[in-house]
Amino acid sequence: MVEFGGYLLPVQYAGVLAEHRHCRTAAALFDISHMGQFLLRGADAAEQLAKLLTQNAAALDVGRDRYGFLLNAEAGVLDDCILMRLDDEEFLLVVNAATAADDREWVQSHLSGAVELVNLSAEGWGKIDLQGPRAADVLAPLADFDLRALQYFRCRRGRLDGRDCIISRTGYTGELGYEIMTAGEDVPALWDRLLDDDDVAPAGLGARDSLRLEMCLPLYGHELSRDRTPLEANLTAFVGDHEFIGGDVLRDRARSGPDETLVAFRCDGRRQPRPGNAIRHGDRQVGTVTSGAFSPMLEVAIGMGYVQPDAADDGTELMIDTGRAELAATVAPKPLYAQGTARTKLE
Amino acid sequence: MSPKDLRYTEQHEWVRVEGNAATVGITDHAQQALGDITFVELPDTGQQVEAGGEVCAIESAKAASSIYAPAAGKVAEANSALEDDPSTVNTDPYGDGWVYKLELSDPSQLETLMDAEAYDAFLEKDQGGS
Known about the structure:
The complex is a heterodimer of chains A (347) and B (130).
Chain A: E1 2-4, E2 7-9, H1 16-25, E3 27-31, E4 36-41, H2 45-52, E5 65-71, E6 77-87, E7 90-95, H3 100-110, E8 116-119, E9 126-131, H4 135-139, E10 155-160, E11 163-168, E12 177-182, H5 187-195, E13 200-202, H6 205-214, H7 247-256, E14 261-267, E15 278-281, E16 284-294, E17 301-307, E18 317-321, E19 326-332
Parallel strand pairs in A: 3-13
Antiparallel strand pairs in A: 1-2, 3-9, 4-7, 4-8, 5-6, 6-7, 9-12, 10-11, 11-12, 14-17, 14-19, 15-16, 15-18, 16-17, 18-19
Helix pairs in contact in A: 1-6
Chain B: E1 7-8, E2 13-18, E3 21-26, H1 28-34, E4 37-41, E5 48-49, E6 54-60, E7 64-68, E8 73-78, H2 81-84, H3 88-91, E9 100-104, H4 116-129
């Protein structure tokens, strides 16, 4: 167990590699109750959220999710988050645990008009993620609605095993899967019910990290921070063209171009690079590692890091200095693991 | 219970002594604590090591750890099979999962190491205290 954002979380159950492979081949269950959940509702909710987030809440259809960022006035990333539109005047915002308290204060202090923020986390709401190619087969029989009709990046309210939930077809693994938000008292029973299925095994923070890294999904505090904008992180696809805090600065920066860019790399060997390791190209230091892990699917070490734009092309040969060893690595297309089932079309 | 025929360090290495030769690995307790081993850095053959000095390193999916020398000597052999399959350290820590062999300068240095009974007691105390 480790402390993470004020919660005690398991790093592993059966072992990181087994949990990781189980998620890629069957279904893994993650307890993600530490993440912040804010319900925003009211006649002005859409317009107020649009002003705060890079995802345009006002243009989001009911039943859809959108990934994006909460930026400060300098376009630094305060957090990354998923916004779910549950109804015309009701949104669920899911944020990181370590930043949740600051996020809530920031959002609350910028809201005006007819909008109310309900801190579901403070009311004890939990979140469990079921992720893997078997996820729909496991979950559909428990749903009181047609779960298979819920497409990628769609959300809805519904009952699972008789419990009121918010269900979103999203996740952090690259696999077909669902994020399930529900009242805290319902989490243990739903958790146990899902684990009754032979296809489901619990997975901890270790597998969650290696799964997201194979998919090159950013982790706040590693790839994302106040010191960088979505431009350097190569994530401007998640920035709308509406007016929002930090938007003008971000567009100005986009015109001049970033001075560093986030890349994924694949090492030749199994040894893991660590955050903070220097990245060299030829005899020049070109950047810094932000995440590193052993990839259970590729069976080599992988990672992400920020490098100067002229060392960012796919195929660029890098040398990573761990302080103890030099690791040969190559810039590789994202995602590093390309066989994820997240976008699978269900009948 | 740890194997009776081995000696143990407080850093959770085991040592099998045959005359002037010592085979070194990490204990079952150590491999369990590290979890899935993903990489073993092997020492160079001929490398001189001091008693208690760092010889090489081992990485798992969740942690990295150093492996130390139980006594002074010269590295005689490294288990190169671990390069391709480091998980052998998990599955057979006292057998095929050995890490390196040492040609001892002074075998009497090993007399200070724990026997199996002392190591098991050490583990119990270690776990009780943490």
